[in-house]
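Let us begin with a simple case.
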Amino acid sequence: MKTLNLTVDGMRCGGCSARLQRVLEALPQVESCKADHVTKAVELVLNADLPLEAIVKAVEGAGFKVV
């Protein structure tokens, strides 16, 4: 398992955090995800390698931005 921490801009409420978590947990390599709109922190636990570009694409597809 590998843990990856990101800062994501654009989360404004708990609903935003929950939506981003669902999007990222849908990726097959993601074991779990915690997103916090207050701190803009996202913690991913990966069970396999996942290119950062794929994560950024999923985040941006959900309407947010990795900073």
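The second case is a distinct protein. As before, the sequence precedes its structure tokens.
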Amino acid sequence: MPFWEKIVSLSPVATFINIVDVLLVWFVIYQLIKIVKGTKAVQLLKGIFVIIIVRILTGIFHLDTLKWMMDQVLIWGILAVIIIFQPEVRRALEQIGRGRLFARTAMQEEEERNRLVEALSKSVNHMAKRRIGALISIEKETGLTEYIETGTPLTSTITSELLINIFIPNSPLHDGAVIIQNNRIAAAGCYLPLSESPFISKELGTRHRAALGLSEVTDAVTIIVSEETGAISIATDGDLHRDLSIEEFEARLRRVWFGAMPDQDSASKWKWGGRKNG
């Protein structure tokens, strides 16, 4: 076969160059997809994909009139895309000029982490000052789908305003846990398993027992705001870190959620209810 003969006849250097060429093309496509992900351009790409499929089918089944129409759509569609998405095209060209097209992903991830921690910190601080009870669990490697299904699905962006409104007393979703999955609020009003450990302090309520119960069976991170005292706590890996200041809360949340380096605030670490772990 001529194709395979051509492949075999290529020198090792030419083969290596072709492989690198293909990998670079896929890398560029991947980066472009990440740039348009979550924007209105995604719907446009879906529409273009459908048009291309229809164009191929018209050629296979010899539908000449429809084929001509699809050709016109594709020809003039390029101009329409440039006009409709002029701001996005300009922004992408500016990023190329600044050398930020491929560095954008890491920067965006760091910005997103900061935004998530800030939203949680702001909402927790607000609720702690007003003694509004709250229970927020963050999924890590172990899936929490079975617990998400017990609540009301939201699939919402994480904002401090939304979290505060969910836990306002007597609101429809305040009783239960909010579960965060893939950096979004997956559901609210969820039921978590209660810890059956005999070592839990009697002063801890249902929220703390639920947070510890979930941390004993998963690697999830659970944030608790006490309704009685307004104290802020974090439960993870079967440990309960109680009475955290807002600064300690932010530092610990970054560490257990995003894997930051451990700090020296071991004095705030408590094992199950009142006993220092040390």
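Residues 106-276 form a domain with the YojJ-like (1 fold (CATH 3.40.1700.10). Strands lie at 134-138, 152-157, 177-181, 184-190, 221-225, 232-236, 239-241, 269-271, 275-276.
Keep these points in mind for the review questions at the end of the chapter.
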